[in-house]
Design a protein that fits this description.
The chain is 25% helix and 14% strand. It is an alpha+beta fold. The protein has a three-stranded antiparallel beta sheet with strand order 2-1-3. Bound molecules: zinc ion. Zinc ion binds next to loops.
Length: 56
C-alpha cells in the first residue's frame, strides 16, 4: 500500500520526468483542473480536487 501515485498532484520533478510520456498523454486533452494544485489532467482520478473544465 501507499499513496496513490496516479495523482499527478503528488508527482515531483523526478517522477514527472520519468513518467513524461504518460504525463504528456494526460495533459494534451485536459478535462479537469485541480482546484488545490492547479494541475490539469484528462482523467479525474489523476488529480486530488478535480474541477471539470468546460468544453469550448
Ligand atoms: Zn491536486
Amino acid at each position: 500500500m501507499g499513496s496513490d501515485s496516479r495523482r499527478m498532484c503528488e508527482w515531483n520533478r523526478k517522477k514527472l520526468k520519468k513518467e513524461l510520456p504518460d504525463y504528456a498523454e494526460s495533459v494534451k486533452d485536459p478535462r479537469y483542473v485541480c482546484e488545490k494544485c492547479i494541475r490539469v489532467a484528462h482523467k479525474k482520478k489523476n488529480i486530488c480536487e478535480p474541477l471539470a473544465l468546460e468544453k469550448k
